[in-house]
Write a structure and sequence with these properties.
The structure holds two protein chains of two kinds.
Chain A: E1 5-7, E2 10-13, E3 19-24, E4 31-37, E5 44-50, E6 53-57, E7 65-68, E8 75-79, E9 88-95, E10 106-107, E11 111-115
Parallel strand pairs in A: 2-11
Antiparallel strand pairs in A: 1-3, 3-8, 4-5, 4-9, 5-6, 7-8, 9-10, 9-11
Chain B: E1 3-5, E2 10-14, E3 19-21, E4 24-26, E5 32-39, E6 46-52, E7 60-61, E8 64-69, E9 74-79, E10 88-96, E11 104-105, E12 109-114
Parallel strand pairs in B: 2-12
Antiparallel strand pairs in B: 1-4, 3-9, 5-6, 5-10, 7-8, 8-9, 10-11, 10-12
Classes of the chains: A mainly beta, B mainly beta.
Chain lengths: 116, 115
């Protein structure tokens, strides 16, 4: 168990460029979440997957954002035409939902995005 | 919509002493979960403690305990015998039951631990 892995750790991009982040959850975890954390704030929920199905998206997730989890394992979060307001830390978390409601999230160390 | 408020941006405690971090929340739901997460400089959110709203007994995890006051919608975290490794941002979070872990977080409290 190597924990939740996120890459890259830091990303600096120019406004208007596209960026993609990757999250590798803990092996066999069937749920995967994306959160966004801006400076001085707590994380905010963006979207989540159960296996490969994206089950919910927050209103925060504009149409410039797209997330995938093609084989129910790793996930990618893409932001098209980045804006300065997209600058934040993007956190990924995974969990193993096994029938009980005692779901425990395991977070990665995030990808810090800076849009210049 | 639920809201979570942490009114203490920063707190300081001496090593081996006890500190209490405050959290209040607003909800119209009767059953839910509350959490405290720790975020050290490594940025990884780590679950400290969890409380189910239907349980009257306050949760405890070693040196960490909560004071859950459902009527007052208050959920404070007490850290006993503080250690240097406890220094971090602490976030209070809320989650509705019957849904995925769509957590609503507060703005956090930065805890400093001094010698």
């Amino acid at each position: 168990d190597t924990g939740v892995s996120q890459n890259p750790r830091h990303k600096i991009t120019k406004r208007g460029q596209n960026v993609t982040f990757r999250c590798d959850p803990i092996s066999e975890h069937n749920r995967l979440y994306w959160y966004r954390q801006t400076l001085g704030q707590g994380p905010e929920f963006l979207t989540y997957f159960q296996n490969e199905a994206q089950l919910e998206k927050s209103r925060l997730l504009s149409d410039r954002f797209s997330a995938e989890r093609p084989k129910g394992s790793f996930s990618t979060l893409e932001i098209q035409r980045t804006e300065q307001g997209d600058s934040a830390m993007y956190l990924c978390a995974s969990s193993l939902l096994s029938g009980s409601t005692n779901e425990k999230l395991f977070f990665g160390s995030g990808t810090q995005l800076s849009v210049l | 919509a639920q809201t979570v408020t942490q009114s203490q941006p920063e707190m300081s405690v001496q090593e081996a002493e006890t500190v209490t971090l405050s959290c209040t929340y607003d909800t119209s739901e009767s059953d839910y979960y509350l959490f405290w997460y720790k975020q050290p400089p490594s940025r990884q959110m780590i679950l400290v403690i969890r409380q189910e709203a239907y349980k009257q007994q306050n949760a405890t995890e070693n040196r960490f305990s909560v004071n859950f006051q459902k009527a007052a919608k208050s959920f404070s975290l007490k850290i006993s015998d503080s250690q240097l490794g406890d220094a971090a941002m602490y976030f209070c979070a809320y989650r509705s039951t019957g849904t995925a872990s769509k957590l609503t977080f507060g703005t956090g409290t930065r805890l400093q631990v001094t010698l």
